[in-house]
Every structure is written in structure tokens, then in C-alpha cells.
Amino acid sequence: MDSARYRANDGAHAAAGRSGTPAGPAYHRVPRPVPLYGAEFAADPRAVYARLRRYGQVAPVEIAPGVGAHLVVGYRAALDLLHDTETWSKDPRAWQATVPPDCPVLPLLGWRPNPMYNDGEAHRRYRRVVTDTLGMIGPHALRARTRSAADALIRRFAAAGTADLVADYARDLPLMLFNQLFGVPEEDHDRLVAPLAALLEASGPRAAGRAGDAVTRYVGELVNRKVREPGDDLTSWFLAHPARLTTEEVVHHVALALGAGIEPVTNLISNALSRMLGDDRYYSTLAGGALTAWDAVHDVLREEPPIANLGAHFPRRAVEFHGVRITPGELVLISYGAANTTPDGLPPGPRSDGGAHLAWSAGPHACPARGPALLIATTAIEQLTGQLCDLALAVPRDRLAWRPGPFHTALAHLPVRFTPVRDTPASASAPRGGLRPAPPHRL
Ligand code: HEM
């Protein structure tokens, strides 16, 4: 990042640069990148985004001690970058060669043979495997499985009258579901929870490295099992896809889908529940009022997106991007969190259209799982609030703790109380049959 140069005569940046940045000549070295790791960012990302915006559309940040990046914080600049595949590549290998092998963000940002880190034809081939197979899951089957997983979890704590909705519900629900979808045996679920969470926290070289290895090792075993005994699950469908992925490529696709799928869905569910329970505008929702789970989910996507900063890109050649000189091999990230809350030219705050947002990213690498993710999150929230109608936060929302990490907006805990319920319904919606939609004649 030393070689990065920001335009000093950018008015916004001059204000931010008071801490030792001389005004003009045209470009100067970045004085002090703003850390996105640690407690300060986790506690109040908005305050950090406000500081970053003073640099203009792109700001200098550190995503781990000593690991710099340019962060795109403007909505327009984010869209410019995400749609410009001629200038920007997703292949991190040139950047990767510049960071130490134990760099704590490498397990998340290092190159792999899957859609997230590849361009052009390789990207299209990989992405098709994901979109084709996700498209084979019937929404009714997915909803039924979500309800069933939700009921099973609610039964575990309903009689207690208290729960931590992160640990007891939002974290386990997508895990149960995705493990089913990918054919992971139930007794192995715990082997995935901690390493998947550690990847996004990027908390230290050893922890992140171990987490990456644990996920790859586990998924490797799973894929080998499915090679021998294919089933009606996404892992087997990846293996059978006409793109003819190698076994190693399938391992990286399954690991990506589990990593990209489970944690953000957890965050979407818990962030939305915390809004519904902690904000008067939603209070009436639980008693049958106006704002629905769908509204809460969309407000979270705009204001506390589960993936707050990611979209790693690298310039194919030296560029000047919104006043910043960026050279090949430098890491550029998109702040979905910052960009969402300042759609350029639009007034801040809620709007009747639900508000433009980039929580799913945009362009060719936008999330391919929007539909399933929304269906899972809204169903999970409806199922919970339908059964425990007087859920209330056990601590005020502004005292809830958020997990550290540059990449996500993730609650650490969501303590709630409610009237104990002894006889929650055994899932009337327990799924029957496979994942695919039933053929029309069976309806
Ligand atoms: C609330 C839930 C989710 C959110 C907010 C979300 C958001 C995103 C975002 C922002 C990206 C762009 C990645 C980047 O910035 O580099 C992305 C990519 C991706 N997501 Fe999701 N996602 C969610 C759920 C899922 C699920 C459930 C799956 C899979 C089953 C999934 C699979 C993927 C894949 C494979 C990519 C890479 C696409 C590509 O590079 O072409 N996501 N997602």
C-alpha cells in the first residue's frame, strides 16, 4: 500500500488528511490507513465509514495488521468497478505473492479454483455449476426444510423462556440446512461451525490458517464420500454437472458455498431479528402489525449487510480510479456497508422503494443465491416469531456486542426472553422426498 497515492487536492480527502497530510502536489502517500479489524470497527462501523468517506469514493484501510487495501466506499464507484471487467480482475495471485504466507486474510482471499477468484470463461464455467444446481432446489422443498430445521431448534429452547438467538437459532439453522443440502452427516456438523466463523473473523495468522485447512480437509472427505456414493444433494450434483469439474474443483466449490452461504445467512437472520425486537417501528410486527420479516430483512441488507466489505478486485494495469492511483497487485475491496448507506444523490434513511443496496454485490460476480438466501431467512424469522409471539430483547439493542472482523456485520449474541412454551408443534412441515421440485403430476 506504500506505493498507493491518493489525490491530495480532493476536497474531501484534504479534510481527512489533517493528520499529517500536506496539501498538494497532486498525489501523496497514504498517511495512515484506517483499521477495519478490532473492536472499534466492530462496535461502530458507521462511524468508521463516515471517517472513510472524507477520503472521497475510495479510502485507505488495513484489513489486518500490516495488510493494506483500498476500500471503495461510494455507491457509484462500487458499481463502476463491479461492472468493469476489462479493468478489474478477481484473480488475487499477483497480490497474494506480496503478502506473507501466514497472512490472516489469505484463507479467505487467496486464489482457489471456484467462481469467486476467477475471470472470463473460467468464471462462467464455475458459476454455471453453482447456478444450475441451486436452480434444481425446489422452493417448496427448501421452505419445508427450513421450517423443519427451525421447529427442531425452537423445540430445544422453547420451554426455557430465554435464549441466545445467535447461538441457539441463527447460527445452527443455516448450518443444519446447508449440511443437509450438501449431504453432510448430522454428527459432523460441529466440525464446520467454528472454522467457518473463524475465516470471516480473520483474527490471527494461526487461527485463520487452521480454519481454512479444517474446512478444506472436511470438505475433501465429504466429496470423496460422494464420489463413492452419490446422493440427492448439492455435492453430488456438483460432481455430476456437465462442466465436469475435477474432484479438487468440487472441493473448492462446496467449501465456497458453505463459507459464502452459512455465515451470511446467520447474520441476516440475527441482524433482522435484532431490528425487529429492538426498534419500535417493528414492535407491532410481532403482534401482527405493519412491518414484516421481509421488511426487516431488506432493511438489514441495506443498513447492516451480512457481508460488509469484500468484493476483492485487482487492477489489470495501473489505473486512476476516482482520484486514486492503483497499481497491479494492489488489493481493492468494496464496502457494501458504506456504499449502501450513501447511494449517491439519494437522501439518507429509509425510502418507500426499500432503498437501493449492494448487499448481494453487482455485476458478473453478484451473489448467485439471493432467492434461496431470502427464502431461508424470512422463513426462519416467521417460524420463530410465529411460535414465540412475545419475544423481547433481554438487553437494549444498542448494548448488543458485534463480532470483530473486517468482512462481516455479525452479532456476537442476541439474548431474548419470552413466555416458555412447552408444546411446540412437532414439525407439521417435515420435508418429505428430495430437494428437487415435485414433478407437476405429483402435485
Ligand atoms: C444472506 C445471505 C447472503 C449474502 C448477503 C450474500 C452476499 C454475497 C456477496 C456480497 C457476494 C459477492 C462476493 C464478494 O464480495 O466477493 C456473494 C457471492 C457469492 N455468494 Fe452469496 N450471499 C449470501 C448467501 C449465499 C448462499 C446461501 C450461497 C450458496 C449456497 C452463496 C453463494 C455465493 C457464491 C458462490 C458467490 C460467488 C459468486 C461469483 O463470484 O460469481 N451466497 N454473495
Brief descriptors of the model:
Cyt_P450_sf, Cytochrome p450, 18 helices, Cyt_P450_B, 46% helix, binds protoporphyrin IX containing FE, alpha+beta, single chain, disordered C terminus, Cytochrome P450, six-stranded mixed sheet, four-stranded antiparallel sheet, 443 residues
Q: What does it look like?
A:
Belongs to the cytochrome P450 family. This is Cytochrome P450. InterPro entries: Cyt_P450_B, Cyt_P450_sf. It comes from Streptomyces pactum. With 443 residues, this protein is α+β, with helices and mostly antiparallel strands. It has a domain at 120-301 and 363-442: Cytochrome p450 (Orthogonal Bundle), CATH 1.10.630. It contains 18 helices and 13 strands. The strands form 3 sheets. The chain has a 6-stranded mixed beta sheet with strand order 3-4-5-11-8-6. Residues 8-26 and 439-443 have low confidence and may be disordered. The structure holds protoporphyrin IX containing FE. The site of protoporphyrin IX containing FE has 26 residues, from helix 7, helix 14, strand 8 and helix 18. Protoporphyrin IX containing FE (HEM) is lined by residues 115-116, 127, 130, 256-257, 260-261, 264-265, 268, 306-307, 310-312, 336, 359-361, 365, 367-369, 372-373.
Task: Write a brief structural summary.
By secondary structure, the chain is an alpha+beta fold. The protein has 18 helices and 13 strands. α11 (190-201) crosses α12 (205-228).
